[in-house]
């Protein structure tokens, strides 16, 4: 307690979140939406933990808390403003506050429900469809009456995405021409492409977009390790003009203070508890394994939403 | 009159419009927003003409009319549904129904006023700023309190755009690095890029976009003559994610039936008559010169909105 300043909390880490956006923070700042990590300082991410000591009137010992600035340490001190209490009566496991109710799942919700102007009967293509964001987009889109085409990077992942209800799923590593595979899955074209990977996949999607199509530029995991020499150059930007395409990007932190956040928590936690929504966590055990757990994301080695378990509840 | 079926009109052509979108119609259909031209048939475009004969109750001999399906002929027959009467008491010359009140000017209005969520004090970059669309974007943006950076392809054009009120204008052909030139003109970055050219310029703009920036993908005139071998590949699509950029495209014909069309006509015709808006026409004389007049657009040989005069009022 002696080391706590006023309005601070000592947190013991339960789970840390591995998310592709952290890769940007490992580079020098490009003026983007998150600050770069400081060499020599611990990195941080979303996480879930237990309050072990508190000088804040808002938190007590034993509270389950979450936040976006959890240090990659077993215990750390944060300001009361950097954490949020997790309700203990929800029947949702702590790791799922990084999973089905976590930032990537909320990203799927905002991108699909608020951003892309979907209509029942439309066709949506989802890349990285078994991933932290993709698996939720697939289920939200099916629940709202869209035809869903998924892409994933192994046969196991393909089966998982089919099990989520997707109408057509292919293995993008073994399918041959991406452009032809998408065309075969959607001969009439794609209305919405939910892009979690960028690169060549974006070009293949552009070639298959219908008039007035929409692209949610959610992530570009295929490109985060690229150098100026190896970064993919998009060939088909002319199709944006020809087919009247809108490309949306959004900053998920802008949406936590909006009504959509409550809508997300209400809808998704209810559906999850009823079993109408599944959510696959990919749990790695041990803080010492966290760096590799993060790097694996950029080779598609995760299967579902990757979290690192640091200690037991 | 004998050759007219019911509800048809014989039109004598006064002016035809040269617009970059016609280039797409010279290629085989890519499923885009306009049908390809049919080899052996006359091509068509926007135009202004005089009714010489009519079996329609809506049009009489001598009416001044405009429409988007004017054949590239001296006289032609159209259905009454394909033309609109031009009010004769406006004090606006017939060619300016293809100019300041024409489709490209309306495109500027919709793209800037309705689409890009501009705010006073923001910085907008406009490529092809002396062109049919660009010259109007520059003036609309200045009138609404934005800082305007223009790019044009000759020193004469640069002077013209400065005369429209732009804060900083450069010659993109002689400026050296586009990316550096934009950075120098906007050290704090660009909030809105109004893209009339595509290609390398889009990459240079992306490198200078501020957080939450918006790109209006209005045209890609630099790419319409490109082949699959020569088409420019966009390097900086990762910045869409990093800086939370939205790229908007729109189909101008969707907007003629909306309230924004009346707002455009009211605002722009009033401002033009008062002299608060200028609009530069680039008039080529003679139907026989029309094909070259169109092709010139793809080399930036027009200066202002190019029209072809076919006959005298």
From TrEMBL, chains A, B:
The keyword Signal does not apply. The keyword Oxidoreductase applies. PANTHER family: PROSTAGLANDIN REDUCTASE, PROSTAGLANDIN REDUCTASE 1. It comes from the Eukaryota. It comes from Coemansia erecta. Residues 9-308 form the Enoyl reductase (ER) domain. Keywords: Oxidoreductase. Gene3D superfamilies: Medium-chain alcohol dehydrogenases, catalytic domain, NAD(P)-binding Rossmann-like Domain. GO terms for molecular function: oxidoreductase activity, acting on the CH-CH group of donors, NAD or NADP as acceptor. This is Enoyl reductase (ER) domain-containing protein.
